[in-house]
């Protein structure tokens, strides 16, 4: 006998006690019964017999919580026991509700869903959810714990600020809950306490459920109130204290803190970007001389200079695999005259429609900033002149739109030699 499912209600629906609300709803829409596969069909017949009762109990939050509480608190017995012979299932599930966490009887429970956002830094944020019938004290404990986890983990994750903000707002109400479900729970407990002759508490609970928009819930609650009034009960002025009221200060913290964190994060990003932008456009000191920088970088593939018309049969495909911008110069292989120069942005490529087939020399300089003319690399780094590379002369054969590829990449200068800034900058 499975002590977590003593009456076999979950087994009848091919579920476990850990089944979520969505799984229970699917089991109702798409019933599934286990056939034995052998000579006897008793397991199938038992599931078929219990299915309607299982649907009725497990889809009612109060009755399901009472059944789960009973399963966790079974009397100690020796050997296998047929609990259906020893206990009346209806009296178990129709009694006052128990908190799923602490097990205490609670007149005003809620079926809540508590969310938590986890993972941090390099991982994407992940929202995990737990649900159950809880008293106000347990819900407060769990939501505060989830809120702290979300604060120190969720807000630091990729995609975390959005998810964490919604999680915080829901946890600020002691978890996500549905008003209609709260009213059904109040009606359930009103019936339970009426049977126990606690008419004052039954009347207060029925009064709460009577405000429901659901006509059936409101009608049954009003009938309970009339029954108590007809028996001489006058409890109209009695109001049951609401343990779910969140103090104003705590509500303010839940409402303001996530937006304050998001605002501070955005302000930090914008401030950092502004500082980097200011630094990028600050004049550069080279050999004691302050040189202004280009305020608007060329676009990838912009031609900086060109002495001869393009449109030849040859295409040069240039890949800039570095993390710096590049100025590429194409020189005549014999005279060394610059035929054209082009701007190639970092991690970009450009197809340069070159000239008719002849020998060329390719040179490129790497750097993050350009001078005020936006045509020359400025780099105060002492390695600047060594980042100007002269690829060895090569010959491009004639053909119908032949493509010669050249890749700019750190540490891959085997095809050429490093040159000085003066040699690179000469016309």
Measured on Cα atoms, how large is the radius of gyration?
Answer: 38 Å
Total count of helical runs of at least 4 residues: 13
Low-confidence stretches: 382-386
**Category from helices, strands and their pairing:** alpha+beta
Helix content: 25-40%
| Number of strand segments | 16
Distance between the termini: 92 Å
Form type? elongated
CATH architecture of the domain at 303-425: Sandwich
Using the coordinates shown, work out and report the CATH topology of the domain at 303-425: Immunoglobulin-like
Q: What are the secondary-structure elements, in order, as H or E?
A: HHHHHHEEHHHHHHEEEEEEEEEEEEEEH
Beta-strand content bin: 15-25%
Largest sheet: 7 strands, antiparallel
* CATH homologous superfamily label of the domain at 303-425: Carboxypeptidase-like, regulatory domain
Broad CATH class of the domain at 303-425: Mainly Beta
Mean pLDDT: 78
Structure description:
The protein is an alpha+beta fold and 427 residues long. Among the domains are: 9-93, Helix Hairpins (Orthogonal Bundle), CATH 1.10.287; 179-230; 303-425, Immunoglobulin-like, CATH 2.60.40.1120. 38% of the residues lie in helices and 20% in strands. The protein has 13 helices and 16 strands. The chain has helices at 9-12, 21-29, 42-58, 61-72, 83-86, 89-93, 136-152, 160-171, 179-195, 199-209, 215-230, 248-280, 421-425; strands spanning 110-118, 126-134, 284-286, 289-291, 303-306, 314-320, 325-332, 338-344, 348-353, 359-367, 369-370, 377-378, 388-391, 394-395, 402-408, 416-418. Strands 5, 7, 8, 10, 13, 14 and 16 form a 7-stranded antiparallel sheet that branches. A 3-stranded mixed sheet has the order 9-6-15, with no helix packed on it. A two-stranded antiparallel sheet has the order 1-2. Strand 7 and strand 8 form a beta hairpin.
